[in-house]
Amino acid sequence: MEHLYASEQPPSRRDLVHTGMTAISNWFVSEARTHGVNPSQRGRTTEPGVNFERYWHVFAHPTPSPEERIVGHLALAQVWHTLSPRVREVFGALAVHGDYHQAAGSLGKTPDQFYSQIAYARTQFLALWHDGETPSRPWGRDRRRHRTRVTGRSTAKIIRQRRARTVR
Fold first, then answer.
1. Residue 54, C-beta contacts closer than 8 angstroms, at least 6 positions apart
2. Helix (H, G, I), strand (E, B) or coil at 61
3. Which fold has domain 67-146?
4. For residue 129, which of 86, 58, 76 has the smallest C-alpha distance?
5. For 40-49, what is each residue's pLDDT tens digit?
6. Where are the CATH 1.10.10 domain residues in the chain?
7. Which pLDDT tens digit goes with each residue over 90-119?
């Protein structure tokens, strides 16, 4: 493009088009490389951004600090010891069994009793974790479910029951 400015005579239409196309091509190659795509690999399928992420994750990633993990471990230890034995027992049963129904059975409780106890335990834990601040609401959803086999027939039955409730 510099030669157009330095030229003593006006450029021809062909020179303008060629210079414009070259500038667009150079811009495209630069943008593609910035986003991790090698434009010279024609015909190969490369996923955009893979190389970009690979490069920038290594070189621009902040150095991990151990503070967050240390503070988390210390806070958990302090909160855990201030929880009542019943609340620790409920958390422990769920941690060991990983299933609400099995955890309830191990404590000799019905699943409904266990659900209410684990909800209470979570609110107690969050209140202690936030130590005087307004505790946050329990966030996220616990995806553990009772392991039952769902068949097409049981799904159809559930749909029929829902429809029957909405008709009433």
1. 36
2. coil
3. Arc Repressor Mutant, subunit A (1.10.10)
4. 76
5. 766 555 565 6
6. 67-146
7. 999 999 988 889 999 999 999 999 999 998
